[in-house]
């Protein structure tokens, strides 16, 4: 039998089925696949590094712009406070910020299409013109008032720089890679994350900036705006910066708000044309401070933002103490006149004064021979009072926060050696009293620091048509059972109040003791009490007494008191009170003086 013929070597399956699934396993394709994988392996690390770098740069740039506008939000408020006061400036500020954020996030694509250049190049131009616009709009405050002035100024300054910045951030973050996150979170994170970071910076800078303001030129109000404009110029240089040249020149040569020697000379010339002169000025944690003198009438005053901390007549020769321009400061000295169970001898007495101003009250206490301690939070206020007003050197100055001082001192005030015969509480700035200094807890600390037979006098400036005086008086009487209340000025008629439209804004002084067994009476005034001062002869003995019934029960008074964690009860009424105070200040000093700074 013939053996079957052996078949020839079968070709590879890939050759017989070139279109089949195993076609890629040819030698040529196998080598090609290896080369492809090798190229991918080589390129993958460099590609990732590049992508990571791009993402990091994108987020860093976004964080930087959000950081700048977070700071600018507070710098804008600082720049408005000398003209409007800190409280009126802030009433609509948050609304401007929210609208700017919303508009900026909404128009980012439109901005990219409309502008023939990158939107970031607008930022330095806007920043350089902000001081110019603030300076120019400031001259219209008499017509704009606090109703429109602050919001219009910020709509022309803060709003544009925030809107463009937010639009740029929105564009950058549109390319951010959030693929590792759930879709719902990836969509929401850029917007909410950006706003959250902005608010964090805004809150931190709001607390930090006042603590450092005034340290040097770049930490003044205009200095910070110049610093921010320079920063924007560095990050977005372009030929468009030539458009900002007029603004740079105006800020350097003509803007009296800039704290330079040249602007001080310019300011002096403008003041003299109005019958005023500026003796000195500076910026500190309580606001913009300046020592002003009316050369026509003859008085000198210490200004803080849009309010006066005190003043004295310079046309009268000083014998023992200067003559105050406000009677309320002389009235505070009547704390010495309150009858006590055992008469307090001046040379053996101690006094604590909370809030310095120009030092009218502590100066008188010192001249009576009383060992006087003054707690003032602002070192520049103390420096100006020493240098330009008649504050005697022989007092004990403590530059500290009064709330902290009182809390710490009350904790160790076990014996009378740590306590005071008299306490004078006289704090005021920006058209409203610092709310923390009228809480139940702070008043309780002061009560601890007051001797059992001691006397406290508390000055509160507010609108008697609002519930704020009632809140304050009720809180004080919760701690001190025996009190009498006096207004600086008698109440005007309803017709007069309606005519001038600024409420019933005045100072009231509350004299109190710890005693529940006897009332509060003032001894007769003797010539030595007046320190040869005409103002004290007229105003030392308290006048214009009011009762709690005159204060309690106004519309909005809910019978509450002010506690440390419930300061909003008082703050909400301070907005209206500050607006009324702004109107009063415009009758005391001409608008042009406030506007020039």
TrEMBL record:
<feature type="transmembrane region" description="Helical">
    <location>
        <begin position="96"/>
        <end position="115"/>
    </location>
</feature>
<protein>
    <submittedName>
        <fullName>Polyamine aminopropyltransferase</fullName>
    </submittedName>
</protein>
<feature type="compositionally biased region" description="Low complexity">
    <location>
        <begin position="1"/>
        <end position="14"/>
    </location>
</feature>
<feature type="transmembrane region" description="Helical">
    <location>
        <begin position="65"/>
        <end position="84"/>
    </location>
</feature>
<dbReference type="Pfam" id="PF01564">
    <property type="entry name" value="Spermine_synth"/>
</dbReference>
<feature type="transmembrane region" description="Helical">
    <location>
        <begin position="226"/>
        <end position="249"/>
    </location>
</feature>
<feature type="transmembrane region" description="Helical">
    <location>
        <begin position="122"/>
        <end position="140"/>
    </location>
</feature>
<dbReference type="GO" id="GO:0006596">
    <property type="term" value="P:polyamine biosynthetic process"/>
</dbReference>
<feature type="region of interest" description="Disordered">
    <location>
        <begin position="1"/>
        <end position="26"/>
    </location>
</feature>
<keyword id="KW-0620">Polyamine biosynthesis</keyword>
<keyword id="KW-0472">Membrane</keyword>
<keyword id="KW-0812">Transmembrane</keyword>
<feature type="transmembrane region" description="Helical">
    <location>
        <begin position="155"/>
        <end position="174"/>
    </location>
</feature>
<dbReference type="InterPro" id="IPR029063">
    <property type="entry name" value="SAM-dependent_MTases_sf"/>
</dbReference>
<keyword id="KW-1133">Transmembrane helix</keyword>
């Amino acid at each position: 039998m013939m053996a079957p013929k052996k078949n020839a070597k079968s070709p590879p399956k890939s050759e017989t089925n070139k279109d089949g699934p195993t076609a890629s396993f040819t030698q040529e394709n196998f080598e090609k696949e290896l080369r492809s994988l090798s190229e991918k392996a080589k390129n993958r690390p460099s590609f990732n590094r590049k992508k990571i770098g791009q993402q990091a740069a994108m987020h860093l740039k976004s964080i930087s712009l959000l950081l700048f506008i977070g700071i600018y939000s507070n710098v804008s408020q600082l720049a408005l406070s000398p003209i409007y006061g800190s409280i009126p400036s802030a009433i609509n500020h948050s609304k401007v910020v929210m609208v700017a954020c919303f508009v900026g996030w909404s128009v980012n694509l439109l901005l990219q299409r409309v502008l023939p250049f990158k939107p970031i190049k607008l930022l330095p131009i806007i920043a350089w013109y902000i001081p110019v616009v603030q300076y120019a709009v400031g001259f219209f405050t008499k017509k704009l008032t606090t109703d429109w002035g602050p919001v219009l100024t910020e709509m022309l300054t803060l709003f544009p720089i925030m809107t463009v910045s937010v639009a740029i951030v929105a564009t950058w973050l549109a390319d951010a890679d959030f693929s590792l996150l759930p879709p719902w979170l990836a969509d929401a994170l850029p917007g909410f994350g950006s706003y959250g970071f902005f608010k964090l910076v805004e809150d931190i800078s709001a607390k930090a900036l006042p603590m450092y303001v005034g340290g040097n030129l770049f930490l003044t109000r205009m200095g910070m705006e110049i610093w921010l404009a320079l920063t924007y110029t560095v990050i977005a240089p372009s030929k468009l910066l030539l458009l900002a040249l007029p603004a740079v020149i105006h800020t350097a040569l003509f803007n009296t708000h800039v704290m330079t020697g040249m602007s001080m000379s310019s300011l002096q010339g403008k003041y003299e044309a109005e019958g005023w002169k500026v003796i000195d000025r500076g910026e500190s944690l309580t606001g913009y401070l300046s020592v002003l003198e009316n050369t026509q009438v003859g008085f000198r005053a210490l200004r803080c933002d849009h309010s006066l901390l005190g003043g004295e007549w310079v046309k009268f020769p000083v014998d023992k103490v200067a003559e105050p321009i406000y009677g309320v400061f002389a009235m505070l000295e009547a704390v010495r006149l309150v009858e006590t169970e055992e008469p307090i001898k001046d040379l053996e007495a101690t006094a604590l004064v909370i809030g310095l101003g120009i030092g009218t009250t502590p100066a008188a206490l010192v001249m009576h021979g009383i060992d006087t301690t003054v707690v003032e939070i602002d070192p520049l206020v103390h420096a100006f009072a020493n240098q330009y007003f008649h504050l005697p050197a022989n007092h004990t100055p403590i530059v500290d926060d009064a709330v902290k001082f009182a809390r710490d001192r009350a904790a160790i005030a076990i014996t009378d050696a740590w306590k005071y015969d008299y306490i004078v509480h006289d704090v005021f700035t920006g058209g409203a009293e610092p709310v923390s200094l009228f809480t139940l807890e702070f008043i309780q600390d002061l009560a601890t620091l007051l001797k059992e037979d001691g006397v406290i006098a508390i000055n509160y400036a507010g609108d008697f048509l609002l519930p704020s005086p009632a809140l304050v008086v009720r809180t004080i009487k919760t701690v001190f059972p025996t009190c009498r209340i006096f207004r600086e000025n008698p109440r005007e008629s309803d017709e007069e109040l309606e005519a001038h439209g600024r409420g019933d804004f005045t100072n009231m002084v509350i004299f109190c003791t710890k005693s529940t067994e006897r009332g509060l009476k003032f001894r007769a005034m003797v010539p030595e009490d007046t320190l040869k001062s005409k103002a004290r002869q007229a105003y030392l003995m308290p006048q214009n007494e009011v009762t709690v019934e005159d204060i309690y029960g106004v519309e909005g008074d809910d019978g509450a008191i002010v506690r440390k964690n419930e300061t909003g009860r008082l703050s909400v009424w301070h907005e209206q009170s500050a607006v009324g105070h702004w109107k009063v200040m415009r009758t005391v000093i001409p608008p042009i003086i406030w506007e020039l700074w």
